[in-house]
Amino acid sequence: MTLRPVETWMTDMDGVLVHEEVPIPGATEFIDRLKASGRRFLVLTNNSIFTPRDLRARLLGSGIDVPESAIWTSALATAQFLGDQRPGGTAYVVGEAGLTTALHDVGYVMTDRDPDYVVLGETRTYSFEAITKAIRLVAAGARFIATNPDPSGPSQQGMLPATGSVAALISTATGRSPYFIGKPNPLMMRSALNRIEAHSETTAMVGDRMDTDVVSGLEAGLQTCLVLTGSTRREDVERFPYRPTRVFDSVADLVDLV
Ligand SMILES: [Mg+2]
């Protein structure tokens, strides 16, 4: 099989470009090369806390200059999905500005009275009251959506519970499972491709996880580039039932491929 030349790039953020706030060597050069090439690209994240503007500011603080328009989050993908599925709908939202802003922008109304959906995203301030409300609304028939299935996330102090864990709490209480939008759902990739009008067969996805970045890139028909600066070690790769197109030590090795 010969690979088609890569015209557009997608890259995961944490573990590829940064470790939380700390830039990974080569990330700044990779992004600068993408911008200089004039090629379309997107930086993807399953984190639904922040708006693209917030994320741009955070990345800039790490010395990585990504335009707001080149950032695609699970919150944006969720809002686009709901806007397509049920235009002008209503939602009860447990989440932060990244999610509420995205839903407002597609014309959604936030309400706790008989909403079409309960939408669960990432927050650092999950309240028992809000979760109780979400449980009651799902039990009463609201459709249950979650931005991403990640069970936990990193922080300087140690592991943090993430959206997937809170979704499990609501699922256990109600017997209803959410539809997860973020990676590994290939919907996240397809919505990103649509966003920059890219074609799957000439797009590469760069990521640090086999079970999210690589599998969702693969299922969306993209070439996949695994980097070893995140959670996957080289010896782990062959244990999965699918393979990335290529494996690189880090994003620094990708600079000259743009
Ligand atoms: Mg990652």
UniProtKB/TrEMBL annotation:
Query: Which residues are catalytic?
Result: D12, D14
* Gene Ontology CC, one term: cytoplasm
Keywords attached to this Swiss-Prot or TrEMBL record, sorted alphabetically, are: Carbohydrate metabolism, Hydrolase, Magnesium, Metal-binding
Q: Name one GO molecular function term.
A: metal ion binding
Residues where substrate binds: K183
List the Pfam families. Hydrolase_6 (PF13344), Hydrolase_like (PF13242)
Q: Does the keyword Cell cycle apply?
A: no
The record's comment on cofactor binding reads:
Divalent metal ions. Mg(2+) is the most effective.
Which superkingdom, per the lineage? Bacteria
Protein biosynthesis listed as a keyword: no
- Record-annotated residues binding Mg(2+)? D12, D14, D208
* Cofactor(s) named in the record: Mg(2+)
Q: Which SUPFAM superfamilies match?
A: HAD-like
Which family does the entry's similarity section mention? Belongs to the HAD-like hydrolase superfamily.
Q: Which NCBIfam families match?
A: HAD-SF-IIA (TIGR01460)
Question: What's the protein called, per UniProt?
Answer: NagD protein
